[in-house]
Design brief:
Layout (H helix, E strand, L loop, with lengths): L5 E3 L5 E3 L5 H46 L5 H17 L3 H5 L2 H14 L2 H18 L3 H19 L5 H18 L3 H15 L15 H18 L4 H11 L12 H21 L8 H12 L8 H20 L5 E5 L2 E5 L2 H14 L3 H7 L1 H6 L10 H7 L3 H31 L1
Antiparallel strand pairs: 1-2, 3-4
Helix pairs in contact: 1-2, 2-5, 4-5, 4-6, 5-6, 5-7, 6-7, 7-8, 7-9, 8-9, 9-11, 9-14, 10-11, 11-13, 12-13
Length: 427
């Protein structure tokens, strides 16, 4: 009689070990296949759910596009805002490129027929459309249709001031992205010059009478002009420096803090550009300019708001370093697994211009938008699977524990300082 192996069971009982039969194998195989089938089914369901969500999203976008020509101003405004949000937070090139002229027609209609807020939203959407399409024939076609409308509104003193402000900003970025002729870029810059130079303090020291909304218009025009400076040729930069560098400091005396800051940053940018072209560049009024910048960097004027003074002092410390020594306070932008260094006034002006339109979606566009990555020389988009991203991110619990530990350490340190202050006070 063959001997069989025995094993201990619960309660000291012993039982025979049965050999692994074909039946067991078939059961295990069926179990494995069932598990695999369940996982495959779950993956298919997830894929179908994602596909349905994408279809719903595209359907909403189509409704928004159709609604930009609706009779109701409220409906048109909602459609423009919906399209702006979508374009700022997702890459929609394939969807948009097929419908770009339909979207352009809606934007043009809203710019011409709408009022203040609607015109502003339409102008912003035009920029986002160009950012999505990138630099090429498609965005050139869009801009060719909208540029005359932008310039008409911008130069019309009777037009809504909000619309003019938005057009000043949007015309600048659209020109940067989509203008194919450098001479047309210079013509647009002259259009901006005709606006912001009206805020110059006159040579006799008298100040022009400009309302706050118009000052904001002039500030927007100056910032767009500075943005286009970043793509000018060396010879044109020389001409600009000769024409404007002695006059731009007059804007530093403006009553509006945003205008003063825009002027300071533009001066720093122009110095950076002209020194790249002419390393030995010499400015006749360099010392008076540095004195003025230093005064703004240490401004203690009691009539100005504390937040304005704090913001101004911070900016003008950097501007003064740029004019005196050619230095720039670098900043690192982190997005996904990458990082980008803002290491010049040219990069800062360009980054700020794009961020104004895409807002919180800037990091996403830096990761996925091929055009923006090309502008900042980041190379092709990096493809990272979700599992890798998940592994790189700390868990919510880990972040919570780290923050709790840091808070506890801060509290202990502060308590020690408080104890020392008490001791000192008792003597």
């Amino acid at each position: 009689m063959p001997r069989t192996k025995k094993r201990s069971g619960k309660g000291g009982q012993q039982g025979n070990v049965q050999p692994f039969s074909d039946e067991d194998a078939s059961i295990e195989t069926l179990s494995h296949c069932s598990s695999l089938s369940e996982r495959t089914s779950a993956a298919e369901e997830a894929g179908e759910t994602e596909e349905m969500a994408e279809e719903d999203f595209q359907y909403k976008l189509k409704v928004y596009i159709d609604s930009t020509v609706d009779k109701s101003a409220k409906t048109r405004q909602g459609a423009l805002d919906g399209l702006k949000t979508a374009m700022a937070t997702k890459i929609l090139y394939d969807f948009i490129s097929e419908r770009r002229m339909t979207i352009t027609d809606g934007i043009e209609r809203c710019l011409k027929k709408g009022k203040g807020l609607e015109q502003s939203a339409a102008a912003s959407l035009a920029c986002l459309l160009c950012i999505q399409l990138g630099s090429g024939i498609e965005s050139e076609e869009v801009f060719k249709s909208l540029k005359p409308v932008f310039k008409t509104i911008l130069n019309d003193g009777a037009a809504n001031i909000q619309a003019r402000q938005a057009c000043a900003t949007s015309l600048g970025l659209c020109t940067l992205v989509a203008e194919d002729d450098i001479m047309d870029v210079y013509a647009t810059m002259e259009c901006f010059e005709s606006l912001f130079t009206r805020s110059y303090i006159r040579e006799d020291g008298s100040r022009p009478s400009v309302s706050p909304p118009v000052t904001q218009l002039h500030t927007n025009a100056l910032l767009s002009w500075a943005l286009l400076l970043t793509i000018c040729t060396g010879s044109h930069i020389r001409a600009i420096a000769q024409k404007h560098l002695a006059k731009l400091p007059r804007l530093l005396e403006n009553d509006d803090v945003n205008m003063r800051i825009a002027a300071g940053e533009t001066i720093a940018l122009l110095f950076e550009l002209i020194r790249d072209v002419e390393p030995e560049f010499d400015f006749d009024e360099w010392e008076p300019l540095c004195e003025k910048l230093n005064a703004l960097a240490t401004d203690c004027n009691k009539h100005r708001a504390k937040t304005d003074k704090r913001k101004q002092r911070s900016v003008f410390r950097d501007v003064l370093k740029a004019v005196e020594d050619g230095d720039f306070q670098s900043e690192t932008i982190r997005f996904g697994t990458e990082r980008m260094l803002i290491d010049s006034w040219v990069r800062k002006r360009t980054y700020d211009a794009f961020r104004e339109f895409v807002g919180s979606g800037m990091n996403y566009h830096l990761q996925a938008n091929e055009f923006i990555r090309d502008v900042f020389e980041l190379g092709p988009p990096m493809l990272i699977d979700s599992a890798t991203l998940k592994a790189m991110k700390s868990s919510r619990l880990e972040r919570h524990l780290y923050n709790a530990a840091a808070f506890k350490a801060r509290t202990k340190a502060r308590n020690k300082c408080r104890d020392k202050r008490v001791d000192v006070g008792e003597f």
